[in-house]
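Q: Predict the assembly, please.
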Amino acid sequence: MATIKLQQISKSFTDHIAVAPFDLTIEDGEFLVLVGPSGCGKTTTLRILAGLETPSAGQLFLDEKDITNCEPKDRDIAMVFQNYALYPHMNVYDNMSYALKLRKLSKSQIAAAVEKAATMLGLKDLLKRYPRELSGGQQQRVALGRAIVRQPKVFLMDEPLSNLDAKLRVQTRAELIALHNKLKTTIVYVTHDQVEAMTMGTRIVIMKDGFVQQIGKPIDLYNRPVNRFVAEFIGAPPMQFLSGSIVKNEENLIFQGDGFALNLQGRGEAASEIYLGIRPENLHLCTEKTPNSFSAQVLIVENIGSEAIIHCDVGHEKIAIKIPVPQTLPKISEILFVIPGKGDLHIFAKGSEKSMAIVQLSL
Amino acid sequence: MKDILRYFFLTAAAFFILAPFLYAVAVSFETASEAATFPPQFIPSGFYTDSYSKAIATAPIFHFILNSFIVSILVTAGQVFTCSLAAFAFAFLEFPYKKLLFSLFLSTMMIPWEATIIPNYFTIRSLEWLDTYQGLSVPFFASAFGTFLLRQYFQTLPREIFEAARMDGCGHFRFFITMVLPLSRPALATLTIYAFLTTYNQYLWPLLITNTDTMRTVQIGLAMLQWDQGISWNTTMAGIVLVSLPTILLLVLGQKQLVRGLTAGSTKG
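A: Predicted assembly structure:
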């Protein structure tokens, strides 16, 4: 059982705030993902959990025990580093058993623990090899194995997949999920990749410039982003935005864009300066002008086989549309009409960038 | 063609650098009169080895070599010990005024050794260490250069290894012994060879603080050969060849490490 509680944890350096104070409770067995662009404070947060960084303020609890000023080794937390940080002069067995040796476990206990972890990770034939004799994927497993043998209360992972090639990354991602299901140990995972966050996390903490933006289940972040940043960060291609205003006409809302209008339904207030956020998969192409459609000029067509991303100009703005293939792909410079689908449309305030309402198209 | 040219220049350069030494070897096998002729004779007429026995008889050369070895080994061990610990602190530990202290440390490299020789002499004399091994070696136990060399190397070790070890429950000292030292073998070898050769070739300090044959080191011994024998060049050269042999041996054996250490950090290997 391991529950981590962060209470008003923050970290500031002389010239900037790395992590602004925030609260978070990580439940036992959770796969929590810290995600955000580089410099958002996610790694610093992880390092605070590890004890490699001391928080400037706030308290940290592991199972109700205050570990804020606890040495890393006394926390019962293991970490997998981005570049694996294997000990280059030790073979795989020694790398994996190092922590156990320091804990003065008996030789047979160590051998059993290493054997178990090595079997789980498919490293049994590599125990005598040195890190330099391993491929990137194998090194990554050893780093994982080194953490697993300790049977820690919590695993911390700092972008462990970022050094793998694309194919191996997808494979290892699935393996990590399987591993988590098997071990049921709490994992805190840092990544800048929203796909990893969405696929692996049971919960996601999304950060920007040291501030936590939103905490929630992956699907909630996707469906109910609290601000424009979250809306843009989660989902690929990101949510598209059209600026305009909302006019209230009796019970109906109308989005007034640059030369077009969309009839909306749902709760909302009139506002003069807003962004209308639409997921690219919620946009469709049509050849004729219909109500609620607007014209767009095609700039780029990216065909990735199963689907295509169409980039186009709408007035002074640019949007991307995701369409399934096969479908007749538009030509460059072609002018066509775009109509939002039945999915949610998000209204964000200009300036504060906060979510104001989630509405649908009125058919 | 390019290779031929390259090897030609390399050979020429090697010859240019080795010429004095080759000349010394040649002269050591000449007779006294051959060695004294003018213009000098570069190729000995025979294989005359008496100069060696004479050199050994005139001055206790082997005893000097032993002395030099003892002092060099002491200094090398002392430097590797103090420098690696200091470098570890500067590379891995956080403490107030670290940068300032390190600059201060480095600035001592700019003070010529000759400037401190008199105060050092008085210190050693007041300790009554004149004519002792500790007098010859202790003043060189710390080296700013060695600390700098090792610190630079330590800094190329990935910081995450330090952090991973910390999380595995490894303390500073254990980390130093089981991680830093084994991973820094090239730099340590460089420092070892450098410290050994520098000490072996020392002249002024041993000259100042030793007064008896039992404590003299090789470089002083060589000077003795010159003065005692007038100018008997073949004997002097025989002494020089004898004295150079250990250093040459060390250099040949350690060359790979030395080069690797001096260029460490330029490429990560």
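Chain B has one domain: 47-263. Chain B touches chain A at residues 158, 160-161, 163-170, 174, 179, 182-183 (CB under 8 Å).
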